[in-house]
Amino acid sequence: MSGRTADAERGYPPPRAIRSLRARLSYPVRIAMAWLALMLMVAALADVIEPYSILAVDLRARLAPPLTNSGLSAHWLGTDALGRDVLSRLIASIRISLLLAFAASLLSASIGTSLGFLAAHRRGLTEQAILALADVQAAVPFPIFALTVMAFLGHGLLPVIGLTSLFGWERHARIARGLALTAEAQGYVAAARQLGAHPLRVYLRHILPSIAATLIVLMTLIIPEVIMLESALSFLGLGVQPPLTSLGTMIGYGRDYLTRAPWILMLPALIVVLTTLAVSLVGDWLRDGLDAGSE
Amino acid sequence: MIRFLAPRLARAALTILLVVTFAFVGLRLSGDPALLIMGDDAPPDAVAAFRASWGLDAPLWQQYVTYGAAVARGDLGLSMRDGRPAVALVTERVPATLALTLPALALKLVLGLSAGIAAALYRRRFVDRVVTTLAVLGFAVPSFVLGLILVLVFAVELRWLPSGGHGTWRHAVLPVLTLGLGGAAAFARLTRSAMLDVLGQPYIRAARARGLPWGRIICCHALPNAAIPLVTLGGFSVGSLLAGSVLVESVFSWPGVGRLLVMSVASRDLAVVQGILLLTATTMVTANLIVDLLYGLLDPRLRTGAATR
């Protein structure tokens, strides 16, 4: 409350959207943000904080449970069947999985939004073609589409990057097109046009900022699904391949040692769950705040 | 009714056509089929003979037409692994997948609907908090993780149920639970919000004012009006069940279409993969058509020409 009055005194009433966002900053949302910040820090500092190389083999400590101290080396989270340190592999996996998920979601949002804008700008045949493509994409469940493409073109890291960056493009395209068409009908777009602005400038400098909130909320819906898609493909052995490791790869590997060494699988699984949960919580909070603000 | 159906049927046909085109382009991009089947060190004249016999030296559009005609006849070629027709390989796996997905769909609907209605009726009370928390959690747990947790608890620790395989109904319990519970979470969430929207409407207040019993208000006034978003999600859930069965069948070594897909992708058995792709697309398009028809049945306003645009 005091922040709001201070802002008002200085003569800048905060936009309603931001005001209602601040009001709803509940504890679960704060914890979710802290968790995401922690994960991003782990991903950024992976090289520095990994206690061992992810490929370093400690044959005297194979399948060591967490918190074992084998004399020379301590493995906080235990080791796998080759004696590789689980904590180090976990940190490396967080980096790969999260990097992939965030980069892919950003890419799919850009692809989808560009196509949506193109459809709104060109109308006619281009628009129909883009909408038909979006229909087809929505008609096949994405994991099955992804597996089919992998059968045609081969699997591994590169196909996973390419495919995850397509995930959800059709939702972005449909929404961006719809919102752009609504914006076209409003005065500010016509004004920018009248002043002779290039279409690219109209879309990127005028329409995009005004619809960005909705697109960001959509991204928070898509990021968790991308994390799950990557981990699912890697779990099936078709995604990130050794020597690289991702959360899904670790879960798939740990599955073979489910009874003897459940710790290999537990933490990567927990991190997938907590991270998806955190992104969804932050997304819900953004959506509530922005919806209330736009009324 | 025809004005309602015709554009939807045309759209469905267009979607299938585009999926077939996609499969054709994918097949051609995947490399030279002659070399793929005959091997890199096959004699050149044998490769040329193979090309001629399969029509691979014809112009691309002609190949496309031939391919489309073959697909329409239900001929997708032979599986590269055991030489049997791909369509037969896929269809003999369908019953096993249905044995998982149908009970899972039922579980999802029953559990999701009842939990969502309960949460909406007891809004901000204990039941609501439990349902909302479980629903958010259920969304965040990937199906393969849920499956492994269930295996760890019920197969490894308690030894109540087998951890994988196929045969008796006991083998199906854990995979069905895995598939159904995850989907129920999304359903419960949407049912709750749809019910809350409807319960705030004036006609519900009017019904209460007339002294109708609660049960009657819920089933005859609230639910039909909350049904449109639920039917939409029901249509989507066909897709998510199909995608989920790929993972769940792999976790529980269940001999269904999903496991066949993963094995065929790993061995690049293209004929089988495109068979599964077309089967999935057809199922999804049919599900969407049914959803559209249900819209018309549920909401007479959508049946009129004005709403079909």
Keywords:
heterodimer; A: 295 residues; mainly alpha; MetI-like fold; two-stranded antiparallel sheet; 13 helices; 2 strands; 73% helix; 1% strand; disordered N terminus; B: 309 residues; 14 helices; 78% helix; flat
What's the arrangement of secondary structure elements?
The complex is a heterodimer of chains A (295) and B (309).
Chain A: H1 2-10, H2 16-23, H3 27-44, H4 46-49, E1 68-69, E2 74-75, H5 86-122, H6 124-139, H7 142-153, H8 157-164, H9 169-184, H10 187-194, H11 199-235, H12 247-255, H13 263-294
Antiparallel strand pairs in A: 1-2
Helix pairs in contact in A: 2-13, 3-5, 3-13, 5-6, 5-8, 5-9, 5-11, 5-12, 5-13, 6-9, 7-8, 9-11, 10-11, 11-12, 11-13, 12-13
Chain B: H1 2-29, H2 33-38, H3 44-54, H4 60-72, H5 86-91, H6 94-121, H7 126-140, H8 143-157, H9 169-199, H10 202-209, H11 214-251, H12 257-266, H13 270-298, H14 300-303
Q: What can you tell me about this protein's structure?
A:
The complex is a heterodimer of chains A (295) and B (309). With 295 residues, chain A is mainly alpha-helical. Helices cover 73% and strands 1% of the residues of chain A. Chain A has one domain (3-56, 74-294): MetI-like (MetI-like fold). Chain A is built from 13 helices and two strands, in the order ααααββααααααααα. Chain A has a two-stranded antiparallel ribbon with strand order 1-2. The model of chain A is unreliable at 1-11 (pLDDT under 50). Chain B is mainly alpha-helical and 309 residues long. Chain B is 78% helix and 0% strand. In chain B, α11 (214-251) packs antiparallel against α13 and α12 (257-266) runs antiparallel to α13. At the A-B interface, α6, α7, α11 and α13 of A face α1, α7, α8, α11 and α12 of B.
